[in-house]
Amino acid sequence: DQQVKQNSPSLSVQEGRISILNCDYTNSMFDYFLWYKKYPAEGPTFLISISSIKDKNEDGRFTVFLNKSAKHLSLHIVPSQPGDSAVYFCAANAGGTSYGKLTFGQGTILTVHP
Amino acid sequence: EAGVTQSPTHLIKTRGQQATLRCSPISGHTSVYWYQQALGLGLQFLLWYDEGEERNRGNFPPRFSGRQFPNYSSELNVNALELEDSALYLCASSVSTARGHTEAFFGQGTRLTVV
Predict the structure, then answer these.
(1) B9: phi then psi, degrees, rounded to nearest 5
(2) pLDDT per 10-residue tile (average), chain A, 114 residues
(3) Cis peptide before B61, with omega less than 30 degrees from 0?
(4) Which residues of A touch chain B, with CB atoms under 8 Å apart?
(5) B60 interface with A at CB cutoff 8 Å
(6) SS3 for A27-66, per residue?
(7) Is the pLDDT at B65 greater than 80, yes or no?
(8) pLDDT in tens, B71-112
(9) Nearest one of B74, B102, B69, B71 to B89, comparing CA atoms
(10) How far is A42 from chain B (nearest CA, A)?
(11) Measured between alpha carbons, how far is A2 from A105 in angstroms, rounded to an integer?
(12) B 62-91 residues with CB below 8 A of A?
């Protein structure tokens, strides 16, 4: 039972354009969402998060949008840079006794071409 | 400021042996989490420790266990190793979740290979 899904295994984008990474979830108890970036042989790096009381959060080139009714979130990277090439994971958290437990999607490999 | 540190970086064990993995959290962080990333799979939640106590556990057999020490560092033990335990084991830390949702910061991982 995969509660967090990233349906696109990979995404290829030209430098300077927008990258849009998508994530769907099924558990209505999730109320906090995070995006992580991972390079090979390294641990995931936290990028940005959003609480379910918001529908948008921005941090520099990164913006996360949350559509609770559709149980969908997306990460926008504008403008995309070659250094953004990595695996991107979305993660969700339910709070309460599950505060410490993040449920991750399978990841999307982003390649930004110069 | 030092990030989350894990040791060893790589570990090779024989089937049936025990493996011990160690994690030091970011200074000031009291929560430690363990995740497994097997080849081709996403990150799977293993264990969560907060203030020295196990707070939550993922869907893993009891031979996966751990503890958190008074200095908030943590140890993950895997007993009776099986070939499918070969994976990248990631430790993360955060401030206490008593403050609510918070971001977890990950270490570089320990690559465990069972032969």
Answers:
(1) -75, -40
(2) 90 97 95 93 92 95 97 98 96 80 93 96
(3) no
(4) 31-32, 34, 36, 41-46, 49, 51, 89, 91, 93, 95, 97-107
(5) no
(6) CCCCCEEEEEEECCCCCCEEEEEEECCCCEEEECCEEEEE
(7) yes
(8) 999 999 999 999 999 999 999 999 877 667 788 899 999 999
(9) B74
(10) 5
(11) 8
(12) 90
Contact at 8 Å (CB) between B64 and B47? Answer: yes
Q: How many residues does chain B have?
A: 115
Chain A residues with CB inside 8 Å of B101's CB? 31-32, 49, 51, 93, 95, 99
**Which residues pair with residue B105 across a beta bridge?**
B93
Q: Which two tokens stand for residue B66?
A: 């751990």
Give the residue among B17, B104, B38, B33 at the shortest CA–CA distance from B74.
B33
User: Could B92 and A32 be called an inter-chain contact, meaning their C-beta atoms sit closer than 8 Å?
Assistant: no
- Write the DSSP symbol of residue B103: -
Q: Are B11 and B112 in contact (CB under 8 A)?
A: yes
DSSP 3-state of B87: strand
User: Any CB–CB contact under 8 A between B21 and chain A?
Assistant: no
Which residue carries 């840079």 as its tokens?
A81
Q: What angle do CA A54, A56, A60 make, to 5 degrees?
A: 135
Nearest-CA distance A91 → chain B (Å): 10
What is chain A's length?
Answer: 114
Residue B7: what pLDDT? Answer: 97
DSSP state of A107: -
